[in-house]
């Protein structure tokens, strides 16, 4: 069943620890209501060269991920080994994001505020978050005096096409996509150099989405009341 | 006390596992605040022919359901065995929903957003949820580009009458009720081919209800502010 | 130190179980954010004749109540035994409520929505909750078609005076206070024939407060938007 | 590695218990969503003379603080011993607040409502909270009939400068800063004579921030609707 040439033995030995860590993430994100109803998927880059990605299988309950609820895919999103598990429909987004230099983890979550804001700001193509101390937790940001653009992509079932557009935005020299983005009505993608950094990015974005959502509600009612 | 002919021995042997699973659901839904104050009830179809349904007994605390807080009823909602437990007043709704082909689990929850939206949209008889990725988690839905009608029934203490109206809507050839519905001021009914699918449907509906509620609040204040 | 005549031995033997149950309530209500910052107090009527009440001591952290964080008081609110613990400043409210026939438990909680609604409706002396299925969980209510008046008392540091006014409202033959009430900016008092019923009443009131609060916000913005 | 003269042996012996207590605080505050994304920091004054402060190290995940995720600093904010850990960038705020007489613990949290209100009231320099029973939980406050001024400082990366301004406000004879304050877009600082009191202050402030935020939203929509 196992193809010995597909995954280096040294890499294979790291699988159990990565799987344990992603199972813990699932339980945590489920309880934050960021991964309800089998939504969300999480991946860890096992090696960049050759590209090997450990990814949650399609349609799994994140509250209690089993040790077998994962697949390993290559740079084309193909499962390395025959398995009963199906890679997520969104595998190619994880692959595109995981291939970035210094990226070792990609997390996709699906929260209420991310969904609401992605709707609210779809027409404008995104929204900016600015001036919050929490922004300093994003990799490479050193001051609250920072303007984070949160791009919103239209949702589609053509994930390959979406992955290409994301890829173009990541390599846009003038104004590259950074830290994360939203898909309309579908949630957040973010990443990091390891699982801890990617999780920190999730927490920071989700925190800021709720801040922006609640502030917007208060500001609008203030205008209406005046 | 036990009537040996009422429940096949092979079915009876499955009871402890079903009861354990429903106790876990109770604790989970209590913590999501979907089953406070002894509200909610949950059922599992043990067999369709003859129809046997395992159902939470009336008025039980869902935080810590005991192994004895359940009853088994037949297709008329009558308890199969003498027991100190009373079947829920809503037994006939569970029976009507559980008799559908391919349905093995019925979950009724009672959340804040379901209650608020059922009030808000009672006059219109329901509301549509459209365009969200989360809709893909509903059985048979394969794209976010889907319009889910959430019907709202007026609340009543005549559950038998309500069960008949629901039954008619389930078998409405032109426009059948699908996946779930709301009772005004009373919460959600949804179902699935097993407990996992029914729970997934609960999580998806509850997620979407909160999204719709928060988006509505933001949209209304935007109109008021303009 | 112990006055043997103050607490019947048969009653004393019930103390550990009551204390365990109230410690569990504290942890539960803390996690619902209904008992933050040492707010709230809980009591169990040990006997009506003579009147003996087990009550959380003043200023205790409800997250982790210790076995010694309780006092036993008589019908005048006096501690039966010398103790380092101070009865809560609100002892006399617990005594007045606990003396009602069939009442064996009094729970005072301090939630965000109770506080907000008590402010919003103080001028009107209270507010009605009507038409919700959840109302059926209140003792003696058998239909959702019920109108529950939630009286709001002005807050005061003169608890003895407040206890007298509450006492008058409880024995008001024409329109007696039932199930519970709010103190402005201070939270909910409710009670029951045992701890389970009183806790059910807390959960029902808190659920309905949030429903009313969120519905009010949506309705007001609808009016503003129209 | 250890400088024997830097920390009295009697003080050193208290470290494990303080560290255990702060680790518990981290897990608790993480679950309240007050310390997401490595935000927040917590400190305990080990001794006032000489001034020794135990402080969470920079950038640690508060969900699961490790026993080594702490540093001990002196009255200039310098680490007493060579360590791989970096003191938090906000060390000097902790030092300034910890040097107050009777202060033994300083807690900095970073919640959604604190962030939203700090934005909303930055122009006015702060806001008052008045009339709530919960205010009685603040040290020295004996009635709900109390007006608590919550000062909002503009955020800055010049923490030394901010610490000086805070120091001036603490020693302002006419109108001293009391109990806590907000930094705009950055969260709450509060303190107490021990960890329990400081935690109580956090819970009280966070509770009241949410009450004020929700009440403001309801009031504004009421004005808009009228």
C-alpha geometry of chain A: globular
Low-confidence stretches of chain A: 1-5
Label the structural class of chain A. alpha+beta
Radius of gyration of chain A: 18 Å
Beta-strand percentage of chain A?
Answer: 15-25%
The CATH superfamily of chain A is Class II aldolase/adducin N-terminal domain
Write out the strand line-up for the largest beta sheet of chain A, numbering strands in chain order: 3-2-1-4-8-7-6-5
Question: What's the total number of strands of chain A?
Answer: 8
Q: Number of helical runs of chain A?
A: 6
Top CATH class of chain A: Alpha Beta
Measured between the Cα atoms of the first and last residue of chain A, the distance is 69 Å
Largest sheet of chain A: 8 strands, mixed
Instruction: Note the quaternary state here.
Output: homotetramer
Instruction: Give the total of domains of chain A.
Output: 1
Q: Write the CATH fold name of chain A.
A: L-fuculose-1-phosphate Aldolase
Assign the CATH architecture of chain A: 3-Layer(aba) Sandwich
Helix content of chain A: 25-40%
For the largest interface, the chains and their residue counts are: A-B, 28 and 27 residues
Along the chain, the helix and strand elements of chain A come as HHEEEHEHEEHEEH
Give the rounded overall mean pLDDT of chain A: 94
Fold and architecture overview:
The structure is a homotetramer of 226-residue chains. By secondary structure, chain A is of the alpha+beta class. Chain A has one domain (9-225): L-fuculose-1-phosphate Aldolase. Helices cover 36% and strands 19% of the residues of chain A. Chain A has an 8-stranded mixed beta sheet with strand order 3-2-1-4-8-7-6-5, sandwiched between helices. In chain A, β7 and β8 (187-192) form a beta hairpin. In chain A, α3 (91-98) runs parallel beside α5 and α4 crosses α6. Chain A is globular. The termini of chain A are far apart. The relative contact order of chain A is 0.14.
């Amino acid at each position: 069943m196992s193809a010995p040439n597909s995954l280096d033995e040294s890499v294979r030995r790291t699988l159990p620890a990565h799987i344990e860590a992603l199972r813990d993430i699932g339980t945590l994100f489920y309880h934050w209501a960021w991964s309800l109803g089998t939504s969300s998927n999480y991946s860890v880059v096992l090696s960049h060269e050759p590209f090997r990605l450990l990814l949650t299988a399609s349609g799994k309950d994140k509250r209690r991920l089993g040790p077998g609820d994962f697949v390993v895919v290559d740079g084309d999103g193909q499962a390395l080994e025959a398995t009963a598990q199906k890679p997520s429909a969104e595998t190619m987004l994880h692959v595109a994001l995981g291939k970035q230099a210094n990226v070792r983890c990609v997390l996709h979550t699906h929260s209420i505020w991310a969904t609401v804001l992605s709707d609210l700001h779809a027409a404008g193509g995104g929204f900016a978050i600015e001036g919050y101390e929490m922004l300093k937790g994003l990799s490479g940001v050193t001051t609250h005096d920072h303007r984070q653009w949160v791009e919103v992509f239209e949702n589609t079932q053509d994930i390959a096409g979406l992955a290409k557009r994301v890829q173009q935005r990541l390599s846009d020299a003038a104004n590259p996509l950074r830290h994360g983005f939203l898909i309309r009505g579908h949630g957040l993608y973010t990443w990091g150099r390891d699982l801890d950094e990617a999780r920190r990015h999730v927490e920071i974005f989700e925190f800021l989405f709720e801040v922006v959502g609640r502030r917007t509600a208060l500001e609008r009612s203030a205008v209406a009341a005046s």
